[in-house]
Amino acid sequence: MTIATKLRELRARLLEIRDLGWAGAVLSWDQATYMPVAGAPARARQLALLSRLEHERMTDPALGRLLAALAPYADEHDDDDARLIAVARRDFEKAIKVPASYVERANALGSASYSAWRNARPNNDFASMRPYLEKSLELTREYVEFFAPYQHMADPLIDDVDEGLTCATIRALFDELRRELVPLVASICNQPPADASCLHAEFAERPQLEFGLKVATDFGYDLKRGRLDTTPHPFCTKFSDADIRITTRAYANELSQGLFSTLHETGHALYEQGIAHELAGTPLGRGTSMGVHESQSRLWENVVGRSRNFWQHYYPKLQQEFPEQLGKTSPDTFYRAINKVERSLIRTDADEVTYNLHVILRFDLELELLEGKLAVKDLPQAWRARYERDLATTPPDDRDGCLQDVHWYSGGGIGGAFHSYAIGNILAAQFHAAALRAHPDIPNEIRAGEFTTLRQWLTENLYRHGRKFKPAEIVARATGEPMTIKPYMAYLRGKYGALYQLA
Ligand code: ZN
To answer: What is the rounded CA–CA span in Å between residue 371 and residue 366?
Structure first.
């Protein structure tokens, strides 16, 4: 077989693996949007079957032989094909380390734990989740051993979602970030709080959704290759490079959550829609890591969507949509309301400044659980202590405490679940600063409701490459330096310093 034939066979095998994954994504999307509840048991069975088939193909020894035969080509070349072979080999090597029996046990625990959590959270019943969490921790430790040796137990988990990052790197980054954020939050919270009452009125859902979708398409979201539906928990999903969907929600009594959820998911979708067509259907045809992906949702949601420039164009339009509710609210009052900083209990409701403190404390608790320094039974107490220390607030119960996030209770493992959110915030500012250095006119364009230059810069420097470069490579190539919190802190200090008149 020639190299070309082998490459063709490799691409065909990889596309089948992707198609199985995408078929599963269609079923999951349908389950979250339109499926009647009674469809759940059959849907769970079908999803399990697809995921088993996908795992079988990913670990097929014939794929391993093909990749081994192609390996010399990857070592000698540095083009798209060489990258494809290298990335596919890496995925294969990782997949074969995990036995199918483990995958099945982990999936089974994940669905049982998730169903239990859906009842336990509203009932504030941590005791009933304790055995699930203990079992999850055990399975996580078992998983990590497949990848021994490692420096820290969390390293293999982190590497799964953010290739190349380690626990040590993140710890150092988060320590630095926490040192900067705690006093910044304190000085903001010493000021009179912003008045966000304008966001709480009766807002019909339909115009909320339409307004969000209009902004999404202005950002560049292509509806010929996408659509918007509603779900309680918004997400972005992909069925092929020509079908990338988002979901959002709208609350009748609160305006900002639905709108910013739409902008957030649009950011994820713009990344996926911007990937070069040549990479479609291969392991290179998706975003390079969770952290970099999250940087794009946060960039469009916060850095653009919560900026004064953006609302200079869109606020009059929003007022037209809701004349009774917002007609008398000044642009400045609205801008302050959507950027209100407060020490709160719920991560997903947190503002830009306090958000990372929610993430950092979860990351620290995960490490303590993994290292055996914290027992599951003591988690609620440890959680309260950290909220008291970092955010000067104590959850009244576990429902709004350590039961609030689905991550630990849905089988994803403990460790490596939360850090990407903070990495996303840091990188959003870093990418945005680099785009502004290249095109200082971007803020003026945004003031006119025009986003082409920004989107094109992101497409050119980030989106089109998909997973061709590792996260650290793409950050260095696009921004000229390794990941750093400096642009992020400068962004926060500039924006919130002005908002809260800090010295
Ligand atoms: Zn996101």
So the answer is: 9
Instruction: Assign 3-state DSSP to the chain and report helix, strand, coil percentages, each to 5.
Output: 70, 5, 30
What 241-249 contacts at long range (C-beta under 8 Å, 24+ apart), as own/partner pairs, is 241/272, 241/275, 241/277, 241/280, 241/281, 241/285, 244/269, 244/272, 244/273, 245/29, 245/269, 246/216, 246/221, 247/29, 247/32, 247/33, 248/209, 248/212
- How many Å is the Cα radius of gyration of the chain? 23
Which residues does the annotation mark as catalytic? 265
Helices (H) and strands (E) in the chain — how many of each? 21, 3
Q: Vertex 465, ends 463 and 469: CA angle to 5°? A: 120
Q: In 3-state terms, what secondary structure has residue 248?
A: strand
141: left (phi over 0), alpha (psi -120 to 50) or beta: alpha
Helices (H), 373-465: 379-391, 419-438, 442-447, 452-461
DSSP 193: P
Closest CA relative to residue 412, chosen from 68, 56, 143, 63: 143
265-280 per-position pLDDT tens digit: 999 999 999 999 999 9
User: Phi/psi of residue 148, each to 5°?
Assistant: -65, 150
From ligand 1's centre to the CA of 265, what distance in Å? 6
Q: What number of other Cβ atoms are within 10 A of residue 145's Cβ?
A: 12
Residue 470: what are its φ and ψ, rounded to 5°?
-70, 160
Q: Is residue 237 within 8 Å of residue 284, measured between CB atoms?
A: no
The helix (run of H) or strand (run of E) holding residue 120 is: helix 100-120
C-alpha 154: how far from chain center: 18
Per-residue model confidence as pLDDT tens digits over 383-441: 999 999 999 999 999 999 999 999 999 877 888 889 999 999 999 999 999 999 999 99
C-alpha 234 – ligand 1 centre gap (Å): 9
**CA 377 – ligand 1 centroid, Å:** 30
Q: Cα(296) to centroid of ligand 1, in Å? A: 8
Helices (H), 256-373: 256-273, 290-298, 308-321, 323-326, 331-338, 355-371
